[in-house]
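Example record for the data management plan.
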Amino acid sequence: MKQEICSVTGAARLSVAPMMDWTDRHCRFFHRLMSREALLYTEMVTAPALVRGRALHLLNYNPEEHPVALQLGGSDPVELAEATKLGANVGYDEINLNVGCPSDRVQSGTFGAVLMKSPELVADCVAAMIEATNVEVTVKCRIGVDDQDPNIVLPDFLEKISDAGVSRVSIHARKAWLKGLSPKENRDIPPLDYDLVCRMKQQFPKLHISINGGVGSLAEAKELLARGLDGVMIGRVAYHSPADILLTADRDIYGSTHTKTRSEILNAMLPYIEMHLQGGGKLQQVTKPMLGLFAGFPGARTWRRYLSENAYREGAGTEVVEAAAAKVLAPESHEYT
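Corresponding structural encoding:
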């Protein structure tokens, strides 16, 4: 089955990285309110959980999240193909294969960053995924692992997945050390090599390449785009200070006139919270990704503390969010754009 490139490619000019325990459906809905254009990713969902465990609830998302991509973890081509079908059938705009996560749990399942050592297997996996659907199949990888030479390993890896039919890849511009560093340390300690990723774009001009790792602002994202890269993927900053990245992203990255204020985002979340609570959900599940909404503004610490201390209480509802907001928004001299 020939893979079709869909409009999600344009959205990939800026994306929020898939992050375990962070980019859940509540986080994605919250982020979508701030940006209509940016591409959003799920947390990694393992193919075995979907295919063998039939944990299909892991595919749940809100239609308003589009464009949204499903990230899969796995190393069995047949199983990944089946998981790809499941994701495509519920309407995800992209299916992404994780070849970058360095955690012990992922390594024990023979997927994630350890697959950088098996580019032929990755090529077989993505070929099977592509054959299973018309939804675009992409890869997120590292520049290498352990003692590999990224200057040798990465171009070989990109050539093999490109030959298998992948036309878009996100590259975390750090090595992953599978032994000796924790997942957290793997996000900070291995040095970034943006120049290598830029050279890969020159070497593979037909491949849509997004860069990931260490990008802390829209200004930095624009600088990387100006170097010829096709997209920028932002991780932790987009979670901890989401408004700094996403409120003006549509204007600054996509040339759109769409912008909103923090206050407007907060008010737009209230009906969503009500619906979640009516469905039996807990307030803290939704407020967790909202903690960074006012990062950098007077009262931000009070906002975070009030939500953290009160959102978990039995029967807590939108009144908790409104009370926390009042402590930040009360001074009329502040403009939370």
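Summary line stored alongside the record: The chain has two domains: 8-254, 262-329.
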